[in-house]
Design brief:
Radius of gyration: 13 Å
Helix content: over 70%
Structural class: mainly alpha
Shape: globular
Order of helices and strands: HHHHH
Mean pLDDT: 83
Low-confidence stretches: none
Strand content: under 5%
Number of strands: 0
Amino acid sequence: MPKGKDYNVFKKIVLKAENDNEHGRVAEIVTSLFGTPEELKKIKQINKAHDKRGYITLEDSQERNSISSKYYRKLMNKSKMNNGYMKKDNLYKMEKKGLI
């Protein structure tokens, strides 16, 4: 679990999850970091339906990607800027939700 407020740590977590084909987890992490509560709720709904069905529909996949891809790019860019640090309250929220 990352300690402090390092975007680079989140980048590593996201890249590992992506490598492990955990795209739903990636979407949830990046949306938790940068998205709105409504977007996060939608991501969670899509992931839950995906888990229940055992596959993701094309429509759900496109919607999840349209939400998370902008935040994925933001994380990749932020990890290179400001020495890679983030606000401590965002880290706390993610730890509390069990995302990290």
